[in-house]
Amino acid sequence: MNAVEAASSRSPAGALERMDLAVSGMTCAACARRVERTLSEVEGVQECSVNFATRRASVLFDARTTSVSALAHAVADAGYRAEVPQASTAEETDAAEERGLRRRLAVAVLLGLPVVVLAMSHGALDFTGSTWVQLGLTLPVMAYSGGPIFRAAWAALRHRAADMNVLVALGTGAAFIYSVVATVWPTFMVTGDHGGHGGHGAAPPIYFEAAAAVIAFVLLGRFLESRARTRAGDAIRRLQALAPSIATVLENGVEREVPLAEVRVGDRVVVRPGQSIPVDGSVVDGASSVDESMLTGESLPVEKAAGAEVFAGTMNGTGRLVFRAAKVGSDTALQQIVQVVERAQGTKAPIARLADVVSGVFTPVVLLIAIATFAAWFVLAPEETRLTMALLNAVAVLVIACPCALGLATPAALMVGMGRGAQLGVLVKSAASLEGASRIDTVVLDKTGTLTQGRPAVVRVLTASGMTEDEVLALAAAAESASEHPLARAVVSEASNRGLKVGAPESFTATPGHGVEAQVDGRRVLVGSRRMLDGRGVSGSEDAERVLTADGQTPVLIAVDGRWVGAIGIADPEREEAATVVQSLRSMGLHVVMLTGDHEGPAGRVARALGIDRVFAGVLPSGKAHVVRTLQAEGRRVAMVGDGINDAPALAEADLGVAMGTGTDVARDAAGVALLRSDLRGLPAALGLARTTMRVIRQNLFWAFLYNVLGIPVAAGLLYGLTGWLLSPMLASVAMSLSSVSVLLNSLRLRRLRLPAPQAA
Amino acid sequence: MLDSIEVGVVSGSVLAAAATVLFFFGPRQRTRARSEVGGAQEVDLMVDGGYRPDRIVVRAGVPVKLNVLRTDRSACSEQIVLGDLGVSRTLPTGRVVTIDLPALTPGAYDFTCGMSMLRGRLIAEV
């Protein structure tokens, strides 16, 4: 693939392409406007913008009408130069970067190794001119392999900023320049100063091997680090890549391909089988199954027909869909999720506050310690070795200090943990929420809609003698088929679930609050409450009614031609996963509390069935926040689980608000954690994710601090008086490289987090 | 007693230390945001091993458009975080990322890289 092809956006079938061109020769904003005008006038160019600051022109054009070379010619005619920037996609730049890094590392190792061997031989391999050979071998290591380090250090210093590169550049630079002077003008190094392991004969010691080895180890560390970092950000990159860059829009019956950015709300968008859906909307035509797992973690494809909502980034199955765009650009659920996660990844965890303060002043402080180390060793060491000892120890301080491990400790773990959460349908809104979630000891669950399915269903059918359950249900369903009442719908849906043949009523009268009366197959059917049956003089249902009520169910009574024939018990059934989830919460050491508007009797039965520790019954919706406060007053750290809208005050009051089943409406703000799927198992998963991520952050911070707190004094030679320990710059660089890599590898463990096995439908 | 070389090295070190402190923590040049275009004030921020400018003065009470262009490829600078404003963005190299900030109340708002090593400050003045 050549660079031209590589740089253009890929459009699977269409001819529209977006291309970024690097424009040179522009000296002012007026030049940029001229280039913009020139490009806009080229036939086939639909859109063009030139950014003077970046020297880039972004052009949208029809590849059937014009070409990149035509664009470049047009710009050249106007007196400027336009070319396709090499490797313009992030992946390609990253790949090029990695190749470069690998080459530099290879050079550093190949040329550095003989230098190290020569130096370590303590004269055994010595020959005339050996120092010059070492200089010759080290020079390319410094200039080529270490080039980017020195350039980055210079860039930072120009801003009066200081980073990792400044420390490494100063450390290796000092060792190298000293050794060059010692090689070129040995007499300049006065008074036979030949201590240290590099010294021999009367010549002053040289430390080319330290400079070369440090560069090699720093590059090796960076190589490992870049691989680990790429993996750390994988989750979000994959999410972002889900939406296609081109959409097919239906205009007056004609399909037209447009760039994603041009899809407007209200457009009719066509999605062919196997394509991913470009924007959010609702289906107006066609039917298909759509894989939404990438968005919600839901493993089974969801059937979509007219009226159903579809979401950007999800994958269409085998049918063709036409839908009306409802949310585009950054409003789509996918973009909302990406934004929530990106924002959250950038937030600061309270636990990292100290690390942030330290990172900010780290490099200048290390420079001061290095200067002090140099001065102290120069004064305290014997005169013959003072310069080399001062230099080596100062270099070791510069090289071992690693602000990266400290700086990466929290963000790396957050990035991996939150990214993994998003893949599992668990969105954590900020680092503070994550930290809060890890400290929760009490979970408050709303019964309706959280522990239960949130909609009434038939759970039991009792019959008078002579009738079967199905006969009673079929009659009741026929009578109720025209009613919109939730209880009526529960009866109708149960009949249809059982595959019963339900006739249409010949006549139908509803009495609000009582029930319905209907004529079905010539029979007079009453379906309703005790009051309704009493009013029609029907009796005999009392026992059945008592049985159902005692079980916490709402009884619906049925009479045919003036005779009671059966009773249907309706309740809001518990979610299938409720008992397992309560169990796993308890095994995590959490106190599980249920909150409900029901009376104590039925509420207590549900609680016992599920294994819940404590129940607050008879709570009005407005009283939920009060329950949370009551528990907090007992010294508990409370997580409140709700739907995110009706429960907003309680969610906000709690130490952690968890909104469940938000679906793709992730922007709901009251909750610190949003569970995309309406599946309670996301809750232990979210709390587990929080605990594990925080544990990793604590480990990272501990090691990063410990490493610097121990490493710097040892490198400065503080233990020399007691133990005779000194750290060679080479070992210091190995330790430094390993410290940030170990922090990253520790964070990457979070990628292995799993949800409980997906629920079968 | 210190010999003359040692005295020289110690005094040199003290001077170097003072210079280091002044270099990193001394006063910095401030840059003013461009006047409002369409209701927002604009600032171009370059990221190349550090922030340029790193002291930005904006008018309080007026939304701010921050055009950030990262030109280096160092891992350190790939994120910009405005912690006080709860904003963080990933900065792809070579592409301008526009960050829209709300009207700010007077005060100083620090921005840093993801690891808090590179630092800059947005100063909202009346």
Automatic annotation (TrEMBL), chain A:
EC id: 7.2.2.8
Subcellular location: Cell membrane
Annotated GO MF terms: ATP binding; ATP hydrolysis activity; copper ion binding; P-type divalent copper transporter activity; P-type monovalent copper transporter activity
Cleavable signal peptide: none
Key word Transport present: yes
CDD domains: HMA, P-type_ATPase_Cu-like
Enzyme class: translocase
UniProt keyword annotations, A-Z: ATP-binding, Cell membrane, Ion transport, Membrane, Metal-binding, Nucleotide-binding, Translocase, Transmembrane, Transmembrane helix, Transport
Residue stretches making up the HMA domain: 17-83
Transmembrane segments: 105-125, 131-154, 166-186, 206-224, 357-379, 391-414, 701-720, 726-745
Highest taxon listed in the record's lineage: Bacteria
Similarity annotation: Belongs to the cation transport ATPase (P-type) (TC 3.A.3) family. Type IB subfamily.
Name by which UniProt lists this protein: P-type Cu(+) transporter
Species assigned in the record: Myxococcus xanthus
From TrEMBL, chain B:
Keywords assigned by UniProt, alphabetized: Membrane, Transmembrane, Transmembrane helix
Gene3D superfamilies noted in UniProt: Cupredoxins - blue copper proteins
Transmembrane spans: 6-25
EfeO-type cupredoxin-like domain residues: 19-124
Name of this protein: EfeO-type cupredoxin-like domain-containing protein
Organism: Myxococcus xanthus
